[in-house]
Amino acid sequence: MSAPILVTGATGRLGQLVTARLLEQNQRVRVFTRRPEAARALFGARVEIAPGDFADRDSLHKALAGTRKLFLLSPISESLVEEQIAAAGAAAIEGGSRIVKISGSDWTIDPPGVSISGDAHAAVEWHLRGLSIEHVCIRPNAWMQVALLNTIRQAMTGQVLNARHGTARVAYIDARDIADVAVHQLLAPRVADKPLIITGNEAVSIRDIAGILARVLHRPIGVAETSGSVAPLLGDGFEHRAVAQFGTLIAAGRAATVTRVVPELLGHAPRTVKAFITEHFAADAALAG
């Protein structure tokens, strides 16, 4: 029987997708989680559950014992570097052969010093290069599931869309494509030899999104005029500061770059913003019906 793949973050949005795809590929999956009851509710007996926390080194080693591959994902936090380095080190000690890490967006990492989140991910990437374990870092652009849902809700409730990034274009990527790339790298004979910068197939502005929403809803969708300045977020914690920096960088046009990594790896184009919006409204209509 093959060794299980350890998935961290399995109860979150992306981790759920990765876990489900691995199970569809008949892979043994072990999930490392602080919420074993949530993992059991999501996946039942199809996965092995390893309760624990990144800060608990014993639980990390127990979770990684007998595994060969690690999917490394953790939330934006001040402890991200320490936690992910600990997980990578434990994987190496326990005989792991591959790490697939979800990193920050490329524009948060390069150049350094513009994003506290990007700098944290860069530190982990640098550490991985020093380990004798095969690894790849995936740098996804802005996620549709995170960035567009509030915009869709504004349109559904008749509000004018908030152009929080001004006229900047963004090559949004669907979390399902991120999961597909991650699973590809977990199961491929070899991983890519450099970070994978993955984006959607086009960069769109808020006015482009308004046009798509207008066609779906069959009515005009307004966009608030803005200077492109980013409204401050409440709170001063690490995550709040990181998200505020994301907004500033996106408004400056840093997230507009389009890459060909998804079609080159997977053999098909990434999902589009139009498809994401259309699917959202179709699912909403089905629930309402």
UniProtKB/TrEMBL annotation:
SUPFAM superfamilies per UniProt: NAD(P)-binding Rossmann-fold domains (SSF51735)
Source domain of life: Bacteria
Record domain NmrA-like: where: 4-222
Name of protein: NmrA family NAD(P)-binding protein
Pfam families according to UniProt: NmrA
Organism: Devosia neptuniae
